[in-house]
Every structure is written in C-alpha cells, then in structure tokens.
Amino acid sequence: MDLLHNLALGFGTALSLQNGLYCFLGCLLGTAIGVLPGIGPVPTIAMLLPITYTLSPTTALIMLAGIYYGAQYGGSTTSILVNLPGESSSVVTCIDGYQMARKGRAGAALTISALGSFFAGCVSTVIIAAFAPVLAEVAFQFGPAEYFSLLVVGMLMAVTLAHGSALKAIAMILLGVLLGLVGTDVNSGVARFSLGVPELADGINFVVVAMGLFAFSEIIRNLEQTAEKREVFTENIKDMWLTKAETREAIPAVLRGTVLGSILGILPGGGAVVASFAAYALEKRVSKTPEKFGTGTIAGVASPESANNAAAQTSFIPLLVLGLPANATMALMVGAMMIHNVQPGPQVMTSNPALFWGLICSMWIGNLMLLVLNLPLIGMWIKILRVPYRLMFPAILLFCAIGVYSLQNNTVDVLLTIPFGLLGYVFAKLECEPAPLLLGFVLGPMLEENFTRAMLVARGSATIFFTRPLSLSLLLVAGILLGLMILPAVRKKREEVFAAED
Amino acid sequence: MKPMTLVLGAIAAFALLLNWAGLIVALFALIIVSSLADQEFSLRESTINAAVLIVASLLLFVRGLQLQFPIWPAFLVR
Fold first, then answer.
1. Where are any strands of DSSP class E within A76-224?
2. Cβ of B11 and A401 within 8 Å?
3. 3-class secondary-structure state, position A184
4. How far is the C-alpha of A108 from the C-alpha of A302, rounded, in Å?
5. Which residue among B19, B38, B65 places its CB closest to the CB of A223?
6. How many whole angstroms separate alpha carbon A63 and alpha carbon A362?
7. How much is the pLDDT for B32?
C-alpha cells in the first residue's frame, strides 16, 4: 500500500499546473534539441541550469529530466529522415532507419521508434518506482568507506562502457578528477591550483566545463564541416502504420531493447548512448537474418530506440538512490540538485518525498506527452529541421553565454569557458570522449570527501576499505573490472559492440 | 582554425564587453562575430538575426526571468 500512497503523492505533484507545464516544456525542448543535429541534452541542460534557479527544485528537475528523455524521442526523427544522428544515442538508428525511409517506410520507422520509446519509458518508470526504495534501504548502510569503494567501481565501469579507447577514457576521467580538485580544500582551507585567481578559489563551476567541452567544441566542429546536401524524406510519411510482418518482428525487439537498456542505464558509465549500441549488436546477434541489418530492417530501429529511452530513465536510479551520477547528463542533474540545496542521496526519498515521487511520475506523464508530440505532430519537427544552422548556432552561443554569466553574474566564468572550448576541440581531434571527464570532475570531489571521512573514522588506517565486507566486495568488483579490461578477449568484444557505428 | 577562433572570440567579446558596453552591444558582438565563422556569411542576414535574438533575449531573460544584467553601456547611464 505504501507504493500506492507514494504514487498518489507523485502524480499529485507531477500533475500540478506548474509542474505539468514545465514537464511539457522540458519534453518539447528535449524533442527539439533531439531533432536538431549539433546540440544535445548535455549542453542544453548546462545552458538552462542557471535559469532554473527561480523555479522550485522539483519543477526544475522535472523539466531537466524531460529534456534528457525527450531528446531520445527527437533524435530518432533526424536519424530516420536525414541519415544524420540528431542525438548521439540515435547514431545506430541511422543505419536501418534511413534505409527504411528510402524504401518508403519512414512512417513505420517513426511510429515504431515512438511506440518503442513509449513502451520502454513506461517499463523503466515502473522499474524506478519499484526498485529505488529497496536499493535506498541498502544505500543507508553505506558509510564513507563503502561510498569510496563504490565510486571506484563507478569510475572503472564508466571506463569499460565508454566509447572508444579505454586508455583514453581513463586519462579523461583522471583529468576530470584533477580539474575537480581546483578550489579551496574543505579540511585545511588551502586554495589548490587556483593560480592566484580569486574566482578560481571557489573551484570551477561544472556548467563552465560542460559548456566548453560539449557545446562550444560541438559548434566549432559542425562549422568546420562543409555543408553536405543530404536527402530529406519529408513526403511519403503518410503511411504511419506497421504491417503485420513488421509488427511481428518489432515486438520482441522492443522487449529485448527495453530489458537491455534498463540494465545498462543503471550501471555507472552507462546511459542512452551505450544502450543503443549494445541493443543493436544484440539484435543482430539473435536475429535469424543478420544479413538484413543495414538494409532497413525494423528490428534495427525498434530495439536501439527502446533501449536508449529505457536507459535514459533508469540512469536516474543511481542518482536518486546513491547520489551518484552514472553519466554526464546525470552529473549535471547533481549540479541542478545542489543549486537548489537538495543533497543527492538516499535521504532525498524520505526528506523530500514529493520531489522523488513527483520526478518519477512526471517521467510517465512526460512519455505520454512525447508520444503525442512525436507522432501526430511530426510535421512540426520536420519544419524545424529546415532552419539553417548558420542562424541557429549564434542563438545557441547566446544561450550559453547568458547561462554561464547568470551563474554568479560574473564575466570571469564566461571567459573560463574559452579554454574548455579549446580543450574540447582538441579532444575531438584526438578522438577522446569528453563525457568521462565531466563524470570524473563531479565524482572526484565526492571520492576525495569520502576518502578523507573514511580515514578519519578509521583514525588514519587504510585497512577500513578492506575490513568492511560491503566495501571489500565492491573493491573486488573493481579489481575484476580492471582485470576484464586487460583481457584481450573482452577488449575485442568491446570494440565489436561499438563497431556497429561504422 | 577559423571557426574555432571566431566562435571562441565571440564568447570573449561578449565577456569583455558586457560590463562596459551593456548586454545589447555585447550580444550584438557575440552574434556578428560568431556568424562570421559560417561559410555563407551575409552581414544583412546576421544583423536581422542579431536584432531578433536581442529582442527575444530582452523579453525572455530580462523581462521574463528577471535575470540581472547591465543593459545599456555604463558610460551612457551615468
């Protein structure tokens, strides 16, 4: 009965006029940036964070969450119609989605993406509602030593699941941790790495890092590419319904995608992008006709699109239960909670149940809104695709500049984004994913804080990490992960999964 | 190199101009400088784009969200 009571509270919160409106706004904006290639949820959420300052924390989180899962819906539209990923989690959808469009089945591809995403969204909302409270019980038994070990596992897992070279991912996480050290040390009050700049004594704001690494470098890269003329399928999408044979093929694919996505979303370092790649690889493996993949098979659209939405939502579980962000977007959500003085962690559920359950229920409502936004209103998004990039990117820059400035009404923060933009651009050239850096940047200070606390509890003896059973098992998991990464067989497998992109 | 210099230069221009010349001038500089990075740059189009975006930001951020900015150049409002 407790669950029913909680859900009632949640729906009551999520359906209030203000929250409902902002949920809709988030979904609308999420779909828009999903449809538009060249801007993703990370820079958008970073851009809007300072602006949500005036909202209540619940409303702000509901809206920001809507942007993340809304982008999963919108991304597929561009992948299918233009053969350009609107979103990095829709990269694989291009492969079969665009081929379906060329065969005149764009309508069916769009329908199954939206329906698959909706189904996955409903399932993962239930998963969060059912499992989060149980996991929170466990989380309450975590002391600083356990948190430290868990963070180690999380970082290693993020490396395992990161896109591209594992060595580069490790380097990026460590660089993120180092950048996270900038600022005043909590225990001694000594300013670290502040280079004598007073603004750096408070540390670097992660919005500054996210904006430079993601938004600016992305814009620069887009501008460097010469505009290719691409075929946009805008007619021929009258026929939205699936044929019987397509339905038979799509349903098991949606189910598999949902399950796989839900699992990968919970894992640290997981999230929508990894889930969509893994789902495509899995689908190809279990299919009786793997040779048809790449020629416009519906399973190749249904499964990754369900998986990315499921993962986008279940990645809220580690955030809400443990206060640990599983990916770059969740790292921003931690920031959103901090801005509003909500300390992320298991206590949110008890100290702020309206926020916790309201956020979960808003996801279901948001998915319903997105279904309407994406299927009957598809024509509207196609029009958005026609806005030329040369008018759009100055607007994105404007939002970024104003967003960063209003963090503290300080132009130094705006100037600080420039080196990070430069860094992001260099990373892109070196094919280093910036997401692990942002994760390390947020997790680093948590790691340090828990380490210091554990050492204080143990009076300076590092054995505390090995003598507490929970902490020891977590560290063993970390050891196994590290071992697995070095094993050549696993390394090959990892490359195979991501090879689907090419 | 050109897009990178111009995009990051536009941000720098905004940051350096804001406190001295106010939001309107700073945004104008941001939009025009960054637009130069595009291969199909046209001054006319970018000026119109800048005008629309500046009016929209004044309405959204200053009127709507009540964010605090110096709007006019500091040497004029004294």
1. 183-184, 191-192
2. yes
3. strand
4. 10
5. B38
6. 9
7. 94
Domain of B42, in residue numbers: 2-77
A361 within 8 A of A469, measured Cβ to Cβ: no
Split into its structural domains, chain B has a count of: 1
Question: Is the pLDDT assigned to residue B9 strictly greater than 60?
Answer: yes
pTM: 0.83
Q: Is A177 within 8 Å of A447 (Cβ atoms)?
A: yes
**CB of B71 within 8 Å of any CB in chain A?**
no
Q: Is the ipTM here above 0.90?
A: yes
Tell me whether residues A401 and B66 touch, CB distance under 8 A: no
**CB contact B57 to A (< 8 Å):** yes
Boundaries of domain holding A373? 2-499
DSSP string, A226-280: ---------SS----SPPHHHHHHHHHHHHHHHHHHHHHHHSTT-SHHHHHHHHH
Structural domains of chain A, count: 1
Task: Specify the amino acid at residue A90.
Answer: S
**Residue A183 β-bridge partners:** A192
Q: Does A498 touch chain B (CB under 8 A)?
A: no
Mean pLDDT on A8-28: 91
Mean pLDDT within A432-446: 85
For residue A194, what are its two tokens? 């502040």
CA distance A390 to chain B (A): 6
Q: Which two tokens stand for residue A10?
A: 């949640």
Distance CA A101, CA B6 (A): 37
Q: What is the dihedral of CA A84, A86, A87, A88, to 10 degrees?
A: 10
Region of A83 (left: φ > 0; alpha: ψ -120 to 50; beta: rest) is left
> Which of B14, B25, B48 to mutate: most A Cβ within 10 Å?
B14
| Chain B residues in contact with A418 (beta carbon < 8 A) | 8, 11-12
Does residue A393 sit at the B interface (CB-CB below 8 Å)?
yes
Q: Which residue has the tokens 């801005």?
A: A339
CA atoms within 13 A on the CB side of A17: 0
Give the mean pLDDT of A290-309.
89
pLDDT class of A285 with cuts at 50, 70, 90? confident
Residue A222 near residue A436, CB atoms below 8 Å: no
- Mutation target to probe the B interface, by most B beta carbons within 10 A, among A390, A409, A422, A429 is A390
The minimum CA-CA distance between A60 and chain B, rounded to whole Å, is 14
DSSP for A273-326 reads HHHHHHHHHHHHHH-S-GGGTTS--THHHHHHHHHHHHHHHHTHHHHHHHS--S
Chain centre distance of CA A34 = 13
- Residues 197-226 (A) with a CB less than 8 A from some CB of B: 216, 219-220, 223-224, 226
Burial A169-187 (b: 16+ CB within 10 A, else e): bbbbbebbbebbebbeeee
Cβ distance A411 to B46 less than 8 Å, yes or no, reads: no
